[in-house]
Design a protein that fits this description.
Blueprint lengths: L8 H19 L4 E2 L1 H8 L3 H9 L11 E2 H12 L5 E6 L3 H9 L7 E8 L8 E2 L2 E2 L1 E2 L3 H8 L3 E4 L3 H13 L4 E4 L13 E4 L2 H14 L11
Parallel strand pairs: 3-4, 3-8, 4-7, 8-9, 9-10
Antiparallel strand pairs: 1-2, 5-6
This protein binds 1,4-dihydronicotinamide adenine dinucleotide.
């Protein structure tokens, strides 16, 4: 918790990982787990896990540990996976098609109800069992179906303008893949910027510093 009593961003960032590990344990029919066992699986410390889960009121029982499916369900509720946020995706290019096809929106609290593209040759194509609509239909669609979440897979140059239009049409949250750090200065709007390249740089930092390759030996 931070000093305002809010759950800190770093705890929230760890929740999806708890949820994923607990889901795997459920598949293996594990019914209960101690914080020490969970910590060892997740390469965290038991006290870190207890501290994180205490932000939401605990869930564990002294001497019993955690009931895996209960904890999975509770964390799922905290994450909002039991919701069904109407979601649209803008930009049905290489990335947009991959995301629409490979991300299971429904198990993550979202329902993909529309895909849009500015290219007339892309509109009409079917992606992830959804017919891509031309961006000209966006306004009517939003007024009719009221999407709350938008996934942005469009070039940097058009991102801010498209996002502002979507906010005016009632969209409240952006999963933004465009190479543009979206900043929306409206209250109540949530933005998650995703840069896969940043994740790769975290890896190269690790290779360079942790594995001691910072002498440039591998760069000869
Ligand atoms: P792409 O060129 O294959 O697809 C972009 C699509 O967006 C095209 O179909 C285009 O017609 C459409 N589009 C452009 N402006 C639009 C608008 N205003 N409204 C609706 N549709 C519009 O590009 P790709 O490879 O799919 O990448 C999309 C964006 O994502 C690029 O800007 C790229 O740099 C970025 N990207 C980000 C990554 C990340 O980790 N965040 C990873 C890979 C790409």
């Amino acid at each position: 918790m931070n000093k305002n009593g809010e759950v800190s961003a770093s705890v929230i960032k760890r929740l999806p990982r708890y949820y994923r590990f607990l889901g795997e344990l459920m598949k293996q029919k594990v019914e209960r787990i101690s914080s020490r066992e969970l910590a060892s699986l997740m390469k965290l410390t038991a006290s870190q896990i207890r501290q994180d889960l205490n932000c939401f009121g605990g869930f564990g029982q002294q001497g019993y540990g955690y009931n895996v499916s209960d904890l999975h369900e509770q964390i799922g509720k905290i994450l909002g996976v039991d919701k069904k946020y109407n979601t649209i995706l803008i930009g049905a290019g290489n990335l947009g098609r991959a995301i629409a096809s490979h991300i299971n929106f429904e198990t993550r609290g979202c329902q993909l109800i529309g895909i849009f593209d500015a290219n007339k040759n892309v509109a009409g194509k079917v992606v992830a069992q959804t017919t891509v609509r031309h961006i000209d239909e966006l306004e009517f669609f939003c007024r009719t179906y009221k999407p709350e979440v938008a996934v942005l897979c469009i070039p940097k140059a058009s991102t801010q303008a498209v996002a502002e239009l979507l906010v005016s049409l009632g969209v409240k949250a952006f999963w933004n893949f465009s190479h543009y750090d979206l900043s929306i200065d409206y209250e109540g709007i949530v933005v998650e910027n995703v840069h896969l390249g940043d994740s790769l740089l975290t890896l190269t930092y690790g290779v360079t510093h942790t594995l001691g390759n910072d002498d440039g030996a591998n760069n000869k």
